Model the fold of this input.
Amino acid sequence: MGTIKILIDEFNDLKPVLQEHIEFNEELLPHVYFGECNEFFINYINEDKPQVLQRLFSVFEIMATQGNDDVVNILCVTILERHGDDRKVLNTARKYMGKETRELSDETEKGWGRY
Done:
């Protein structure tokens, strides 16, 4: 829940998504919740607003560097894989990725045989 708290503290528009998620599922399902946030992440990336993306990718870097195996898995499988679905999104995202997030993204893309 620590990463989610950091995320919703930075991005207030994701708090209602969390509330709806918990009401619907009657519990927190982290992969599902971050999957529900992906469209917000993609919209942020497509808007290409540096201040917003620096904050977003700072959260992702925290996930990459301070998260346990489950958190890193969420970052790779649920978030970074989605970025790689669209080359334009991935290229914009890479401009803001921290070192560890970039390495995880590169590994994810290699694993999928993309780009």
The chain has seven helices and no strands. The longest helix spans residues 30-47. The mean pLDDT is 94.
